[in-house]
């Protein structure tokens, strides 16, 4: 009579590829979150204070100009919507750019891949900005600047596309500037200043000359910021003509394809660097 083999009571079922990836991402997420906040309350306070500082600075300037409304909407809400949107994209691109270098020692484990480090850091940035928005917006409402989105679905779509563009740009920057090409990182950081000035975050695009506005709308960022404001404020907001989500979607798709191509070509170098 053949004896039946019984599994050891302490044995665990083998995890599939998705299970391994989920566990790796969760562990990397916790590691990145601890590193990001550094265990100090001052760091968490600065995460919230940075966008507020920029918005308050511009608010003071507009107050001196006796401007209570910009493009038909409350000045505070106009500035906050632009500041938060721009800083989310900038934070995703610039912090994801350094995510591979920050986790090189972990790539000795075959379960950990460079793209896992990028995705985990992206999750941390999105979680931080989500929590920051949940603190800032109720605070603005308490101060008399409350707002209910005119088009919640349109707002969600624009925010998702903004996050996708930041993730694609961050992945491309992380892979493309790794190794000897790290010299390009300061240039990329400086490039965000003209992008900030031309994004419509602090100056309404509708007030700019048409020729200049057409050049600025070649960038996906003004389309996303204006789309977010249109979804927030509705017809009250005087948005410029030609705003849409098609161009940001094309940019995000091209950046993702190029990043994945570079990742495929340079994958071995990333693992052993």
Automatic annotation (TrEMBL):
Subcellular location, principal: membrane
A UniProt-annotated Pfam family: ABC2_membrane
Family to which the UniProt record says this protein belongs: Belongs to the ABC-2 integral membrane protein family.
Protein name in the entry: ABC-2 type transporter transmembrane domain-containing protein
Membrane topology: Multi-pass membrane protein
An example Gene Ontology molecular-function term: ABC-type transporter activity
Keywords of the record: Cell membrane, Membrane, Polysaccharide transport, Sugar transport, Transmembrane, Transmembrane helix, Transport
GO terms for cellular component: ATP-binding cassette (ABC) transporter complex
Gene Ontology biological process terms in this record: lipopolysaccharide transport; polysaccharide transport
Residue span, ABC-2 type transporter transmembrane domain: 25-233
Subcellular location: Cell membrane
Regions that span the bilayer: 45-64, 76-97, 118-141, 153-175, 187-208, 242-263
């Amino acid at each position: 009579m053949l004896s039946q083999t019984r599994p050891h009571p302490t044995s665990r079922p083998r995890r599939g590829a998705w299970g391994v990836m989920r566990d790796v991402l969760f562990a990397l997420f916790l590691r990145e979150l601890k590193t990001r906040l550094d265990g100090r309350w001052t760091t968490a306070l600065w995460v919230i204070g940075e966008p507020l500082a920029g918005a308050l600075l511009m608010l003071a300037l507009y107050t001196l100009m006796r401007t209570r409304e910009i493009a038909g909407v409350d000045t505070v809400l106009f500035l906050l919507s632009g500041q938060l949107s721009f800083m989310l994209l900038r934070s995703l691109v610039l912090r994801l750019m350094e995510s591979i270098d920050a986790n090189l020692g972990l790539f000795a484990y075959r379960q950990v891949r460079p793209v896992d480090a990028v995705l985990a850091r992206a999750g941390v940035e999105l979680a931080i900005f989500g929590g920051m928005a949940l603190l800032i917006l109720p605070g603005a409402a308490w101060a008399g600047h409350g707002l209910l989105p005119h088009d919640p679905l349109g707002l969600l779509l624009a925010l998702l596309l903004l996050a996708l563009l930041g993730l694609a740009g961050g992945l491309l920057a992380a892979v493309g500037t790794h190794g000897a090409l790290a010299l390009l990182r300061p240039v990329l950081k400086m490039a965000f200043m003209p992008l900030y000035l031309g994004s419509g975050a602090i100056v309404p695009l509708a007030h700019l000359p048409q020729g200049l506005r057409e050049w600025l709308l070649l960038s996906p960022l003004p389309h996303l910021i204006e789309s977010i404001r249109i979804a927030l404020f509705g017809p009250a907001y005087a948005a410029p003509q030609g705003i849409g989500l098609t161009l940001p979607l094309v940019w995000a798709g091209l950046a993702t394809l190029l990043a994945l191509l570079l990742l495929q070509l340079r994958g071995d170098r990333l693992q052993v660097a």
